Amino acid sequence: MLPDDAASPPTGQEAHLRALEALYESAPVNGLFASALSLPEAGQSVIEFDVVPDMFHAAGAAHGTVYFKMLDDAAFYAANGLVSDRFLLTTAFNLHFTKPMKTGQARAEGRWVSGRRRVFVAEARIVDSTGEECARGTGTFLRSHIALSGLPGYRAAE
């Protein structure tokens, strides 16, 4: 019998969400960004990240690539939290800039909107350390032929 304070490994949906978090961490592109993904439940995601001067365009604020990357990832992981067998692919993404991001912490929040079979729609927004929205976007994601279980980074948390 396990002691009361011993946590058992996650199973089912919880294991899938933890494996997606590991997949995010394993992606080579994420070595370029100080960021961490958490999936509180299927259909929701949060990416905490740091905006640093290395990300700035010539006018001294975060380049659009940072906005797109964080919004796309937040929306993608919110949607893929509902799909435990296949990797989703972004087929379209609409982005709206609302405020320049400067140095500091920021948060991308994603949530699933619709779709459960082949095509999924999810939205995301970025808020800065003051809680002000800096951008928002909506993505369309398609179920691919790529099995999640075949991806080296997709593994249960240890």
TrEMBL record:
Keywords: Hydrolase. Transmembrane segments: none annotated. InterPro entries: HotDog_dom_sf (IPR029069), PAAI_dom (IPR003736), Thioestr_dom (IPR006683). This is PaaI family thioesterase. Signal peptide: none annotated. The keyword Transmembrane does not apply. One of its GO terms (molecular function) is acyl-CoA hydrolase activity. The keyword Cytoplasm does not apply. Pfam families: 4HBT. It comes from Sphingomonas rhizophila. Residues 60-135 form the Thioesterase domain.
